[in-house]
Each structure stands twice: as structure tokens, then as C-alpha cells.
């Protein structure tokens, strides 16, 4: 009876380090035969169409065990799970999930007399999937993907520091001498937004404003739900959007939190646009709590328009 280990990552910026930790070190699998998809194999591709999983099924023999670190490494939704379980049952293969929502379940349990896949297994899978367990695991993967992709582009997560008070005069002097905002941000290891804040009254749009032009948009402070902020931190944002998010002051809300984000109405609308996937996409139903958080933020952003009109 062979132990067949399946690994997959969704982007070429990811590594299998975490899966290795769960499967190679913690699980103690004896004589594993590893099948690892090419980096960037999307979770949207049906498991039965993935090259390495196909090789695994061809290699497998009855009573072998398939090992995966978490369910979302293999499947994306309820339909995928049930399709895979049918094939594993047909080939008399066991499935062992070592972490996540399904790790305590024997998903390939058979009736002792008939040998059929237990109907209770399918019921439990459907119930857990409907309750959002798989979607939460999948969202964790997508967030991880986004963070790794951002790091690969040189963007670090977390709140970026402002220009220290004792450095402000030096920053302003260097800017007046012709040093660029990007160069100053590198020099002081802060975001461009932090430099812009330090030299705001020296910027061309401030000092050379056309008297007949409409007044520039002023920053507006809104409390952004924590679930929205978590999603945006893994998204690709421009400098102004990233600076507004990273410089937000965290306000605790019961067991959660809400960054107090100051940005122009236009930037708030742009951030809101990035949150659209929280309402759900094809093959990835919305998580109710995340959808509610996005709509709360949408209501607050839309209120800015109403305030502007009055």
C-alpha cells in the first residue's frame, strides 16, 4: 500500500514550504511518492484535468492512500469534492487530509457490507461546504497568494511608517533641492504617501493651483471593516491606495477591528472597486461575513457622494 502525496500552488510566486511542513515533517508519512503540479496550476482547473493528479491516479493501486495538506490544494468547490470522491471510491483509494476543515473526516469511508461510499460522507461534505468551511480555507489560500505576489514585486505587508518628526525638515529640504518623492521614500524606508504628507504644502499642485480651478478633493476619514482591509492588503493597489490603507489607524471593534482610513473620495471609491470579489464570483461563492463587510464599506463610501451634493 503506497502513500501518494499531492502538492499544488496557485502562483509561481508561491512555494510548497508550508505543505512540506505539514506533509513531510508533521505527518510522518512513510516512503511518500510525491506528485507536485507545476507552479501556477490554478485551483479553477478541475482536479481530474490537472496533469500531476492524473499521473497520481494512473500510478495508484487499490488500497493506496492519497495525502494532501489541505482540501483546497486539491479542490475548489463542492462539485470538485464529490467528483474526486467518486473516482477515489471507484479506484478504492483512501484520502487523508492533514490540516483544515476536513482533516478530522474519513471522506472515503465505505459501507462494511456493500462497499459503497457512505451517503453520510457526501452529506457532511455538502454541509461543511455550504457552511463556508472550504471557502474559508480557499480564501486563506487566495490571501496567501496575494501576499506572496506583492512581496515578489517588492511590496511589504503591514502598516508603513510615517516620516519621523526629527527627519521631516531634512525631507522637506531635500525635496526643495530637487530630490524626487520616490528617491526620498527609498532613502527613509517609508511609502511615497508618507513623503507626500511630509511635503504636502510644497507640492506643485498645492503651490501653483489655478485660482479658477475647483478646489481639490480633501481627504475623508472612514472606518473600513477589518474583513475588507484584510482582503485589500492582498490586492494589487496603486501607491495612493496602498498609502491610505497602510497609514490607517486601527480601531478595535469587539473581537474584530476597523482601520480608520483617510483618503480622498476618489481613492475610497477605487478601494471599494477592488473589493467586488467579496460579493462572490463564478465558482467561488461569497462568504456572508465578507459580503456584509463590503456592503458596509460601500454604504459609507456612497454616503460621501450624498454629503458632497448637500
Structure description:
With 310 residues, the protein is an alpha/beta fold. It folds into three domains: 3-140, Resolvase, N-terminal catalytic domain (Rossmann fold), CATH 3.40.50; 158-216, no CATH class; 217-310, no CATH class. The protein has helices at residues 17-26, 51-59, 78-90, 119-130, 133-152, 168-176, 181-188, 192-198, 204-207, 226-233, 239-246, 265-274, 288-309; strands at residues 3-7, 32-36, 65-68, 94-97, 220-223, 249-253, 256-263. The protein has a four-stranded parallel beta sheet with strand order 2-1-3-4, covered by helices on one side. Helix 7 (181-188) crosses helix 8. The mean pLDDT is 77.
Radius of gyration: 25 Å
- Quick one: CATH class of the largest domain? Alpha Beta
Major sheet size, sense and barrel closure: 4 strands, parallel
**Content of β-strand:** 5-15%
**Count of structural domains:** 3
Q: What percentage of residues falls in helices of 4 or more residues?
A: 40-55%
Shape: elongated
In the predicted model, the low-confidence regions spanning at least 5 consecutive residues are none
Strand order within the widest sheet?
A: 2-1-3-4
Kindly report how far apart the N and C termini lie.
73 Å
- Tally of extended strands? 7
Order of helices and strands: EHEHEHEHHHHHHEHHEEHH
Number of helices: 13
Q: Do you know the CATH topology of the largest domain? A: Rossmann fold
Name given to the CATH homologous superfamily of the largest domain: Resolvase, N-terminal catalytic domain
Alpha-beta content class: alpha/beta
Nearest-integer average pLDDT: 77
- CATH architecture type of the largest domain: 3-Layer(aba) Sandwich
Amino acid at each position: 500500500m503506497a502513500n501518494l502525496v499531492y502538492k499544488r500552488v496557485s502562483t509561481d510566486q508561491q512555494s510548497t514550504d508550508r505543505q512540506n511542513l505539514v506533509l513531510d515533517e508533521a505527518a510522518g508519512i512513510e516512503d511518500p511518492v510525491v506528485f507536485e503540479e507545476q507552479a501556477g496550476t490554478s485551483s479553477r482547473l478541475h482536479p481530474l484535468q490537472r496533469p500531476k493528479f492524473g499521473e497520481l491516479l494512473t500510478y495508484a493501486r487499490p488500497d493506496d492512500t492519497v495525502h494532501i495538506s489541505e482540501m483546497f490544494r486539491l479542490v475548489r468547490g463542492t462539485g470538485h469534492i464529490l467528483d474526486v470522491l467518486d473516482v477515489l471510491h471507484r479506484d478504492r483509494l483512501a484520502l487523508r487530509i492533514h490540516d483544515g476543515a476536513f482533516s478530522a473526516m474519513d471522506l472515503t469511508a465505505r459501507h462494511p457490507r456493500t462497499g459503497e461510499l457512505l451517503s453520510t460522507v457526501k452529506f457532511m461534505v455538502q454541509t461543511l461546504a455550504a457552511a463556508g468551511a472550504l471557502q474559508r480555507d480557499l480564501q486563506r489560500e487566495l490571501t496567501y497568494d496575494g501576499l506572496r505576489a506583492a512581496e515578489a514585486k517588492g511590496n511589504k505587508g503591514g502598516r508603513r511608517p510615517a516620516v519621523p518628526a526629527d527627519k521631516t525638515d531634512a525631507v522637506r529640504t531635500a525635496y526643495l533641492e530637487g530630490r524626487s518623492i520616490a528617491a526620498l521614500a527609498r532613502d527613509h524606508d517609508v511609502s511615497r504617501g508618507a513623503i507626500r504628507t511630509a511635503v504636502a504644502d510644497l507640492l506643485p499642485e498645492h503651490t501653483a493651483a489655478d485660482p479658477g480651478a475647483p478646489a481639490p478633493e480633501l481627504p475623508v476619514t472612514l472606518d473600513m471593516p477589518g474583513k475588507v482591509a484584510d482582503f485589500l492588503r492582498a490586492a494589487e493597489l496603486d501607491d495612493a491606495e496602498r498609502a491610505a490603507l497602510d497609514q490607517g489607524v486601527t480601531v478595535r471593534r469587539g473581537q474584530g477591528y476597523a482601520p480608520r482610513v483617510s483618503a480622498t473620495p476618489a481613492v475610497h471609491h477605487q478601494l471599494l472597486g477592488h473589493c467586488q470579489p467579496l460579493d462572490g464570483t463564478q465558482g467561488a461563492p461569497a462568504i456572508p461575513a465578507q459580503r456584509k463587510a463590503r456592503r458596509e464599506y460601500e454604504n459609507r463610501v456612497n454616503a460621501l457622494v450624498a454629503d458632497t451634493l448637500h
